[in-house]
UniProtKB/TrEMBL annotation:
InterPro entries for the chain: Zinc_finger, Znf_C2H2_sf, Znf_C2H2_type
GO CC terms: nucleus
PANTHER family: GASTRULA ZINC FINGER PROTEIN XLCGF49.1-LIKE-RELATED, PR DOMAIN ZINC FINGER PROTEIN
Source taxon at top rank: Eukaryota
Pfam family, one: zf-C2H2
Lineage: Eukaryota, Metazoa, Chordata, Craniata, Vertebrata
SMART domains named among the record's database cross-references: ZnF_C2H2
Compartment annotation: Nucleus
Family: Belongs to the krueppel C2H2-type zinc-finger protein family.
UniProt protein name: Gastrula zinc finger protein XlCGF71.1-like
Keyword terms: DNA-binding, Metal-binding, Nucleus, Repeat, Zinc, Zinc-finger
GO molecular function: DNA binding; zinc ion binding
Gene Ontology process terms (BP): regulation of gene expression
Species of the source: Microcaecilia unicolor
Length: 168
């Protein structure tokens, strides 16, 4: 028997459907860029309070969950469990289109955009669209001139951390 979950609330921007009105409001913040919860330590902003609370553990240095394989520590049990899939090779999420498997549901959903061509994140400056919010955010720096990653040795700045690392 298959259970069908009703998702009556649909985003007008990207047609994603969710179960609750509150979930839709939270989802729509992806499109508006609204992040009402701010970390008092570093001013990083978040869409949801639980994400802020999880982030704040960074500042406390608390990582009580340790991997028995490699001794890497994590702030929460879900982070440890996600990490442990590296060691087990477990990939429980499979793409119905191409049978490629993934360790995380979020990675599968991201991958599926390849097949659908879905690009719900749109640059307000030039209307270019992207499959991932992170790619849009990186692209927007072209318009703002922002280069947040700076070499400590020569002060050269970069838009992406990978480019700074390659510079070294």
């Amino acid at each position: 028997m298959m259970h069908v979950v009703e998702k009556p609330f649909t985003c007008t921007e990207c047609n994603k459907s969710v179960k609750q009105r509150s979930g839709l409001k939270t989802h729509q913040m992806i499109h508006t860029g609204e992040k009402p919860f701010t970390c008092p330590d570093c001013n990083k902003c978040f869409i949801e309070l639980p994400r802020l609370k999880r982030h704040q553990m960074i500042h406390m240095g608390e990582k009580p969950f340790t991997c028995s394989e490699c001794k890497k520590s994590f702030r929460d049990l879900s982070g440890l469990k996600r990490h442990q899939m590296i060691h087990t090779g477990e990939k429980p999420f499979t793409c119905a289109q191409c049978n490629k498997s993934f360790s995380h549901l979020s990675t599968l959903k991201s991958h599926q955009m390849i097949h659908t061509g879905e690009k719900p994140f749109i640059c307000v400056e030039c209307n270019k669209s992207f499959s991932h919010l992170s790619t849009l955010k990186s692209h927007e720096m072209i318009h703002t001139g922002e280069k947040p990653f700076t070499c400590a040795e020569c002060n050269k700045s970069f838009r992406q951390l990978a480019n700074l690392k390659r510079h070294h």
